[in-house]
Inverse folding.
C-alpha cells in the first residue's frame, strides 16, 4: 500500500487530489455532500494513484472505477461518472508532471 509520507511533494499532491476526485467527482454512492463520509473511497486511492503514476490513460482508469462500482459496490458501471473522474485525474497528473519539468 502506498504511504503518502514516503512520496515526493508532487506525488503527495497527486495522492490527495485522487482522494478528492473520487469523493467529489466519481462518487458512485452519492455521499459527496456528507462530511462524515469524506473517507468513503479512501481504499481505492492507492490503486488509482498507482495507475496514474504508471502512465495509464483515461480509458484504463475509467474501466477500473467502473469495475469497482459494479464488482465491489453492486452498482451499475456508472460510465459517465467514471469517465469524468478519469479525465480530471489524468489532467491533474499531466499538470503536476509538467510542473516537475
Amino acid at each position: 500500500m502506498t504511504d503518502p509520507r514516503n512520496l515526493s511533494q508532487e506525488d503527495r499532491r497527486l495522492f490527495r487530489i485522487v482522494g478528492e476526485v473520487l469523493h467529489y467527482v466519481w462518487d458512485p454512492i452519492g455521499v459527496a455532500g456528507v462530511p462524515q463520509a469524506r473517507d468513503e473511497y479512501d481504499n481505492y486511492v492507492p490503486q488509482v494513484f498507482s495507475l496514474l503514476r504508471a502512465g495509464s490513460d483515461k480509458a484504463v482508469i475509467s474501466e477500473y472505477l467502473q469495475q469497482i462500482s459494479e464488482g465491489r459496490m453492486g452498482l451499475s458501471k456508472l460510465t459517465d461518472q467514471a469517465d469524468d473522474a478519469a479525465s480530471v485525474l489524468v489532467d491533474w497528473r499531466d499538470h503536476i508532471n509538467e510542473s516537475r519539468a
